[in-house]
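Sequence in, structure out.
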Amino acid sequence: MSVSRIPIKFTIEGIGEAEGELIRHLAPRTVDAISKRLPIEGRAALWKEEVYFQISVKMGKEKAEPTVEKGAVAYWPMGNALCIFYGESQPYSPVNIVGQVIKNLELFERVKSGTKIMVEKM
Protein backbone atom coordinates (compact mmCIF):
# COMPACT_ATOMS: atom_id res chain seq x y z
CA MET A 1 0.00 0.00 0.00
CA SER A 2 1.34 3.40 -1.00
CA VAL A 3 1.32 6.28 1.47
CA SER A 4 0.21 8.62 -1.30
CA ARG A 5 -2.77 6.50 -2.44
CA ILE A 6 -5.04 4.80 0.08
CA PRO A 7 -7.38 2.13 -1.41
CA ILE A 8 -10.94 2.40 -0.11
CA LYS A 9 -14.18 0.48 -0.54
CA PHE A 10 -17.71 1.91 -0.58
CA THR A 11 -20.40 -0.51 0.61
CA ILE A 12 -23.77 0.77 -0.57
CA GLU A 13 -26.66 -0.82 1.32
CA GLY A 14 -28.79 -3.01 -0.93
CA ILE A 15 -26.82 -2.06 -4.07
CA GLY A 16 -23.24 -3.32 -3.92
CA GLU A 17 -19.62 -2.27 -3.55
CA ALA A 18 -17.50 0.29 -5.36
CA GLU A 19 -13.75 0.82 -5.09
CA GLY A 20 -11.80 4.03 -4.94
CA GLU A 21 -8.71 5.65 -3.58
CA LEU A 22 -7.83 8.63 -1.45
CA ILE A 23 -4.97 10.54 -3.07
CA ARG A 24 -2.90 12.41 -0.50
CA HIS A 25 -1.32 15.11 -2.72
CA LEU A 26 -4.74 16.45 -3.76
CA ALA A 27 -5.51 17.75 -0.23
CA PRO A 28 -3.03 16.24 2.28
CA ARG A 29 -4.58 17.49 5.55
CA THR A 30 -8.10 16.57 4.48
CA VAL A 31 -7.07 13.10 3.24
CA ASP A 32 -5.21 12.46 6.52
CA ALA A 33 -8.22 13.56 8.60
CA ILE A 34 -10.59 11.31 6.62
CA SER A 35 -8.29 8.27 6.52
CA LYS A 36 -7.76 8.42 10.31
CA ARG A 37 -11.55 8.20 10.83
CA LEU A 38 -12.18 5.24 8.51
CA PRO A 39 -14.42 3.30 8.55
CA ILE A 40 -17.03 6.06 8.10
CA GLU A 41 -20.73 5.45 7.67
CA GLY A 42 -23.47 7.82 6.65
CA ARG A 43 -26.90 8.15 5.07
CA ALA A 44 -26.93 9.42 1.51
CA ALA A 45 -28.30 12.74 0.38
CA LEU A 46 -28.59 13.58 -3.31
CA TRP A 47 -27.82 16.71 -5.30
CA LYS A 48 -27.94 16.59 -9.10
CA GLU A 49 -25.54 13.75 -10.08
CA GLU A 50 -23.82 13.64 -6.70
CA VAL A 51 -24.23 11.47 -3.61
CA TYR A 52 -23.03 12.98 -0.33
CA PHE A 53 -23.25 12.31 3.38
CA GLN A 54 -22.12 14.05 6.53
CA ILE A 55 -18.97 12.77 8.23
CA SER A 56 -17.29 13.54 11.54
CA VAL A 57 -14.48 15.54 9.89
CA LYS A 58 -14.48 19.32 10.19
CA MET A 59 -12.01 20.96 7.81
CA GLY A 60 -11.79 24.26 5.98
CA LYS A 61 -10.98 24.68 2.33
CA GLU A 62 -7.77 23.01 1.14
CA LYS A 63 -6.95 23.43 -2.54
CA ALA A 64 -10.74 23.77 -2.94
CA GLU A 65 -12.08 23.50 -6.48
CA PRO A 66 -15.36 24.86 -7.90
CA THR A 67 -15.45 22.11 -10.55
CA VAL A 68 -14.83 18.36 -10.45
CA GLU A 69 -14.52 15.47 -12.90
CA LYS A 70 -16.90 12.51 -13.04
CA GLY A 71 -15.76 9.93 -10.48
CA ALA A 72 -14.29 12.46 -8.07
CA VAL A 73 -14.45 11.88 -4.32
CA ALA A 74 -14.41 15.18 -2.44
CA TYR A 75 -14.89 16.73 0.97
CA TRP A 76 -17.42 19.57 1.12
CA PRO A 77 -16.30 22.05 3.83
CA MET A 78 -19.64 23.89 3.93
CA GLY A 79 -21.53 20.68 4.79
CA ASN A 80 -18.81 18.59 6.51
CA ALA A 81 -19.65 15.93 3.96
CA LEU A 82 -18.00 13.35 1.74
CA CYS A 83 -19.21 13.65 -1.87
CA ILE A 84 -19.12 11.21 -4.77
CA PHE A 85 -19.68 12.76 -8.20
CA TYR A 86 -21.05 10.01 -10.46
CA GLY A 87 -22.23 12.26 -13.30
CA GLU A 88 -21.52 15.56 -14.96
CA SER A 89 -22.85 17.83 -12.17
CA GLN A 90 -20.70 20.28 -10.28
CA PRO A 91 -20.52 21.02 -6.55
CA TYR A 92 -22.83 23.51 -4.88
CA SER A 93 -19.76 25.32 -3.55
CA PRO A 94 -15.99 24.58 -3.76
CA VAL A 95 -14.85 21.17 -2.50
CA ASN A 96 -11.54 19.64 -1.43
CA ILE A 97 -10.94 16.85 -3.94
CA VAL A 98 -9.57 13.86 -1.99
CA GLY A 99 -9.70 10.94 -4.42
CA GLN A 100 -11.59 9.06 -7.08
CA VAL A 101 -13.87 6.08 -7.62
CA ILE A 102 -12.04 3.56 -9.81
CA LYS A 103 -14.51 0.66 -9.98
CA ASN A 104 -18.34 0.44 -10.13
CA LEU A 105 -18.99 4.21 -10.21
CA GLU A 106 -22.33 3.49 -11.92
CA LEU A 107 -23.69 2.00 -8.65
CA PHE A 108 -24.03 5.52 -7.24
CA GLU A 109 -26.69 6.29 -9.91
CA ARG A 110 -29.00 3.86 -8.05
CA VAL A 111 -28.55 5.39 -4.58
CA LYS A 112 -31.71 6.83 -3.03
CA SER A 113 -31.86 9.47 -0.30
CA GLY A 114 -31.28 7.78 3.08
CA THR A 115 -29.33 4.79 1.70
CA LYS A 116 -26.59 3.73 4.13
CA ILE A 117 -23.03 3.99 2.76
CA MET A 118 -19.93 2.65 4.50
CA VAL A 119 -16.42 3.77 3.50
CA GLU A 120 -13.47 1.71 4.71
CA LYS A 121 -9.85 0.98 3.86
CA MET A 122 -9.31 -2.06 1.65
